[in-house]
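Re: that chain you flagged

S.,

Sorry for the slow reply, it's been a week of failed gels. I finally had a moment to sit down with the sequence you sent. For the record, here it is as I used it:
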Amino acid sequence: MTSRSEPEPAGASRRRVRPGTAGFTMVELMVVIVIIGLAAAAVVLAMPDPGGSLRSEAERFAARAKAARDTAIVEARPTLLRIDSAGYALARRGGGTWRESDRWSWVEGTSVMASGSGEGGIRFDSTGLAQPAQITLSRRDRRVGVAIGQDGEIHVLP
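Prediction finished late last night. Pasting the structure tokens below so you have them in one place:
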């Protein structure tokens, strides 16, 4: 038995689609969604935090304080970490006075309160021992502390 069909227009394709083979499979769609999600996460993580977070600023300060302690030990001479409202500086003793060698500024809007520091800062002796101090950084309604122990250990407080 033959069936009659309408004649196809000129240029039309004779390709027939089997049911269930058109479109994408669920697995293919899921793979694409995962790839888009990973790309979006990479972009979000790569974007800098404007002004930096207060915690990361405290961690930077703690790392530089550790470097000041290590410098005192390596050079076998006292090192001073000066702290003021504008920033902080590394100073070394030379010619009877403290001379700043490096200076860093706080991120705009950061205020600082230091307790326990003397001589205008935290002094590390040639063995790495320090004057105990507590530095509190604050910005808007957030606060993060950095504790410097007498043994020279430095910790960012939660």
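What I noticed first: Strands lie at 79-83, 87-94, 97-105, 111-115, 121-124, 133-139, 142-148, 154-157.

Talk soon,
D.
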